[in-house]
Design a protein that fits this description.
208 residues; 68% helix; mainly alpha
Length: 208
């Protein structure tokens, strides 16, 4: 059902330059993460397709994103509209279901929809796409470098203990939310309540 080669050929029709390079880097990072966390079969195929498609509407800006939300009948709320940089995740999720209904599914759309803000109760593949988008090797922002180093220092030491590995993943995601929220505060930007809720849920689960 899921064909990464098909989407690899399609995505240059929607993205170019650095955005396209980033997309391929995220896909390669998802492959590495899938190996680390033992994601196989249809879940792996879905993850790699979602990685290729996660920024498919990213090059549309401002009013174009809002128009696309309405055209696609995508679900959104005022929290989303207050954070324009996350809208491509919502439009992208709706777009792939409209454009390729037989090559995608709702789970793939959810991976794409949650890749910017996360959400409470994220599944493993959601977490991996979210993380890959943040730590892929071409990202050179200070926060990305910090998160990449934090994540990569640990898996080798805990790879034979699945529970410790999953906890390390969750701790990494908490740090990613902390770094993002700190940057948004410093720049005087609106913070998505979805990101806050995702962070809090992970913290609570780590303490349980």
């Amino acid at each position: 059902m899921f064909d990464a080669d098909f989407f690899k050929a399609e995505i240059p029709n929607y993205l170019s330059g650095k955005r396209l390079s980033h997309t391929f880097a995220v896909t390669e990072e998802c492959e590495r993460l899938a190996d680390i966390f033992g994601v196989e079969g249809i879940d792996r195929e879905r993850l790699l397709c979602a990685a290729l498609l996660h920024d498919i509407t990213k090059e549309k800006k401002g009013r174009e994103q809002i128009d696309l939300l309405r055209k696609l009948n995508a679900e959104y709320d005022s929290d989303d509209l207050n954070s324009p940089k996350i809208l491509h995740a919502i439009t992208g999720a709706a777009f792939i279901r409209r454009q390729w209904p037989d090559r995608t599914d709702d789970e793939m759309a959810l991976l794409i929809r949650s890749h910017t803000t996360g959400r409470p109760g994220m599944g493993l593949c959601e977490k991996l796409l979210y993380l890959a988008d943040y730590i892929e090797p071409t990202r050179d922002w200070e926060s990305c470098v910090t998160l990449r180093r934090f994540f990569k220092k640990e898996p080798a030491a805990v790879k034979n203990d699945p529970q410790k590995l999953l906890k390390h993943l969750d701790r990494t995601l908490v740090l990613s939310f902390d770094l993002t929220i700190a940057e948004l505060i410093e720049s005087g930007s609106v913070i998505s309540m979805k990101a806050v809720a995702a962070r809090n849920q992970l913290l609570i689960s780590l303490d349980a």
